Amino acid sequence: MAQGQGRLNSSTKSPKGNLSDGNRKLDAFSKRQTLAQHRKSLPIASVDKRLVEEVQKHDTLIIVGETGSGKTTQLPQFLYNAGFCGDGKLIGITQPRRVAAVTVAKRVAEECGVNLGEKVGYSIRFEDMTSSSTRIKYMTDGLLLREALLDPHLSRYSVIIVDEAHERTVHTDVLLGLLKSVQDARSKSLNNLQNTKNKKTNNDIQLKENGAQGLNFLKQYQGRTPLKLIIMSASLDARIFSEYFSGARAVHIQGRQFPVDIFYTLHVENDYLDASLATIFQIHLEEGPGDILVFLTGQEEIESVERLVKERLKQLPENSKKLVAVSIFSSLPSEQQMRVFAPAPPGFRKVILATNIAETSVTISGIKYVIDPGLVKARYYDPNKGLESLVVVPISKAQALQRSGRAGREGPGKCFRLYQEDQFGKFEDSTKPEIKRCNLSNIILQLKALGVDDISGFDFIEKPTRSAIVKSLEQLFLLGALTDDCKLSNPVGRQMACLPLDPIYSKALILASEFNCLEEMLITVAMLSVESIFYSPRDKKEESRTTKKSFASPEGDHLTLVNVYRASNEFLEKRSGLSKEKREKAFRKWCKENFIDSRSLRHARDIHSQIRRNVEQMGLRVASCGDDVLQFCRCLAASFFLNAALKQPEGSYRALANGEIVSIHPSSVFFKNKPECLIFNELVETNRKYIRNTTKIDYLWLTELAPQFYAVQN
Ligand code: CDP
Ligand code: MG
Q1: Are residues 221 and 328 in the same domain?
Q2: How many domains would you assign to the chain?
Q3: Least confidently predicted of 90-104, 212-226, 261-275
Q4: pTM of this prediction?
Q5: Do 685 and 539 lie in a common domain?
Q6: Does 146 lie in the same domain as 117?
Q7: Who surrounds ion ligand 2 at CB < 5 A?
Q8: Residue 398 falls inside a structural domain
Q9: Which one in 188, 312, 527, 655 has a CA-CA gap of 20 to 30 Å to 52?
Q10: pLDDT per residue over 270-315, tens digit each?
Q11: Which residues line ligand 1 (CB under 6 A)?
């Protein structure tokens, strides 16, 4: 299988210009053949007919299968071929992660021999790759929720597959509840229609008399089909889904798994990046052929290990240099995402640096070694304090098992766990569903917009805690999204629900149009939506700090980000005469020189143009505050008043909303020169609680601009 893929991808790389037409056809032909062979070899291939029958028989079906057995890429194709897209209906497949939606759609388009966006497409926030001819549509779970706002019965879909349901993202959980009621509503309306039809056909005369009407009726009838719902999951526990869907049928797909040797460390590893790096090179220099998969916690960590690998390689003798590092994480630009699937050049070993996206959502061939530091970055929300933070926490036993399993897909493998065996024993059995540990204001706003007013009464697969619901409702109320009786406010609440952003950012944009600084706020929100704009390599800390200072604004990090964005604008505008490639190359060079993460900045630029379009459509006025930066800072205070903090005598800060003691993150412009009062955007917990992205404000602005909170709190 791996070899087949190898041939496929190296042929894609061959210089097309040198190929004759005949050769090119042959090339495409052999590519199709290799793909067809690969498809046939997947565990799911032998049960295709049975699966289709199961879907035909049951309106709700749960499919559980080993990762890599072909669920995500194959099932939609089986259903398409079995005629589930009659009447122009769509098969929708949701994924918790953007990268999975994109890479799988690309793969399936290739397998079907069509261009992406034709029969097979994807749609994720800020990126739509579908057309009127799309029938198999991959998307994020969050995006389908948004679609429901416009089309409450999801009438364009004949089948919806909720994939990776075991991940239990908050979007998946809410989607399951919504789909349950949509399925119900569609069956009911179909039954009603059926009853009327029966009555009418019994009355022959009437039907003849109403010839035209009868025809209309028939059309209407054909347009409505029951919604087929398929829940797919990699973990073995289908019970919870089955129970939730009133005892729905569950089928298991037998996978293949080779033995994997597990190794633990003897000591506790304090720096898991260093430990990962050491293990990569230990495997590379001492073990037989096979690719390495390393699980890291985020883009920043991945990029720093990527740089370290490259540096270390330079020091190795020539014959040990054959190692290539590739990375995959959610905000990787889509044109770079497919690189992880391409095999390394002959004789080279590939090391894949991934977030936990590679745990179950994305399967990469050729992996024989897995390095598992046992950590994951997750959002945690403390409803008592109203604080959400990004924390690196230990994974669960189930996750550790999934990770090691990645090494044994194509043959026996090895997994290096960078923790001790008794640490493993202390891991939770499974991961807590996100809905139990996240801020719910986003999802509550969407449910309200969908007409679900009684949030506690919503049929959640697992109910969030009452205190989390209450706190989030309170937050939405303070942001002006809800009225006194907890209904969506007009226009603010409705406008906020329309924007594909966290409520607090949506509110900032709406306020900014009143404060005449929407131009600056659009840039700020876009820049805050990506992981990290600046980076500082370990060996160039001083240099990167000095460079960063050239962008720094005395007002704070938000305007610093605006400065970076505008500098990149200026740079690109000056080179508007260049070809796209040359411009892009120059852009990357400029970013590198300035210690800016070019991928993040590119992503932020894309997000910017999307949300700019969104606010323009809403009729908000995009203007700049020009030199009046105070106006912008006041707008930040009015928007992020829930995240205000006051300096303490010893130099730390006290968050005003909850009394939490926090420190300024070293990346902030205020790390050394601390203002009395500031607002912040993010709380990151490592060895201490850090606040990131801060701007200096005047304490008195809070009572003036957010009296709904500070007048009461005094
Ligand atoms: O969903 P499930 O984990 O069951 O498997 P899948 O994602 O459908 O993957 C089936 C096969 O397709 C695996 O062997 C993957 O390596 C391959 N695949 C690929 O080569 N490139 C992709 N972009 C996606 C899948
Ligand atoms: Mg899958």
Answers
A1: no
A2: 3
A3: 212-226
A4: 0.87
A5: yes
A6: yes
A7: 71-72
A8: yes
A9: 188
A10: 899 999 999 999 999 999 999 999 999 998 899 999 999 999 999 9
A11: 42, 65, 67-74, 103-104, 107, 341, 363, 365
